[in-house]
Amino acid sequence: MTLAIGDTAPDFEAETTAGPIHFHDWLGDSWGLFFSHPKDFTPVCTTELGAVARLKPEWDKRNVKPIGISVDPVDAHGKWAADIAETQGTAPNFPMIGDPELKVAKLYGMLPAAAGSSSEGRTAADNQTVRNVFIIGPDKKIKTILVYPMTVGRNFQEILRIIDSLQLGAKHRVATPADWKQGDDVIIAGSVSNDEAKTLYPGGWKSPKPYLRIVPQPK
Question: Which residues pair with residue 31 across a beta bridge?
Answer without folding.
Answer: 64
